[in-house]
Predict the structure.
Amino acid sequence: MTAHTMFDKIWDAHVIDEEEGEILLYVDRALIHEGSSHAFAALKRRNQSVARPQQVFAFTDHYVPTTGREKGIQGIAVDEIRNMVIAQHENTKLHGIRLFGFDDPAQGILHIVPPEQGITQPGMLICGADSHTATHGAFGSIAFGIGASDMTHVMATQATWQRKPKTLRIVVNGELGFGVAPKDIILAVIAKIGAAGGVGHAIEYAGNTFERMSMEGRMTVCNMSIEAGARCGMIAPDDITYAYMDGRPWAPQKGAEWDAAMALWRTLPSDPGARFDREVTLDAAQIEPMVTWGVNPEMASPVGAAVPDPKTAPDERRRSDWAMALDYMGLKAGTPLQDIAIDRVFIGSCTNSRIEDIRAAAEVAKHGRAKVPAWVVPGSKTVKRQAEAEGLDKILTAAGFEWRDPGCSLCTAINGDQLQPGERCASTSNRNFRNRQGPGGRTHLVSPAMAAAAALKGRFTDVREIIK
Ligand code: SF4
């Protein structure tokens, strides 16, 4: 019997049609946000309706302010954003789509809320109006971002045309060292394979490091698959996955429904001997807390290292890329990463704003006081409530951190939360591209614990020296 990868099993189960190498795939879930108004406008122009509104979910996250929310929608200061939020309410109501909107008690980021609510499930094919939809692959699903016109097609037909990617298995085995987080693993993976190392591929993360990892950690890892250029990233579902899903509102309920789902879910992991187009292996014990120093997530080094000299880059292209990156980032080759002073800290985004991330930041915050402005932006109201029930907000605010309302915030800086030109930020988000956090802003990607440590010192520091 042929051994199949998890990716092939899920892909094959969703194929509807094929034309000249393009495959029409059935979509189980479509995730949209307040910026998806173009899709609704296109449907209206074509006089089309949403094919399966019960499989489309909407979130208010990208544009919403992360303070002053008690004033309600009418209190949104920017007219354009307020109108966008109102239009989203109207459009989703008109089409019968479940909206986790501005006032919803479960409001939050479109890659945080669906797993929390049990909307994300193993074996599904999920399309989202944001490139970090790969996050949902942590449950053993195929999940990827699509553009506005593709989303219009999905909403009208519940299907999408795609080319089949190749498969890449990334195997990490071993215990994570003290102070090393899932964010450090994915930064180390991208530093090894490159920001284009996954192009044209679907990644499966395998090995006992991931088998021991929480769902929150797995989501952080899968989230950044796109930063290695991959179409999606996934991890096989297991008992940790099933325990996480148990009892969530949209998950199959215990009894016959749950048993039927489990019967399918247990067939999903790649078969022994399944062939991948490529394999990469890392040793978890060799991974240290990481800091990016450049303008893509590949430009990352262990915190004990120095800013590299472009002359030492492995090829001419990277020599030039590194030199331009250091110029933009205002850094000199040879500077120890721990000597780099920062202006701001951002703990948030769909990469690192879950309860474990807030706990990790609070654990570090207990050891001092923030020397620079430091924001903590929970990924959802559910995370915010849980953190407050655990007293994490009190720990953070006592240490001088600012506790804000859920949203994408400084990850993409389109809601008004942004860096000033030249400002340097230790950020738990996923992209350190030029201008990502505001024109001229300088972004360094780190884990939540490393971000909190940087806040306490006003410069990058090895978190292991704080939480010994
Ligand atoms: S937090 Fe950033 S990457 Fe995530 S959904 Fe929002 S804008 Fe996209």
Observations:
- Residues 61-62, 109-111, 130, 132, 349-350, 408, 411-412, 430 surround iron/sulfur cluster (CB under 6 Å).
- The CA atoms of residues 25 and 285 lie 39 Å apart.
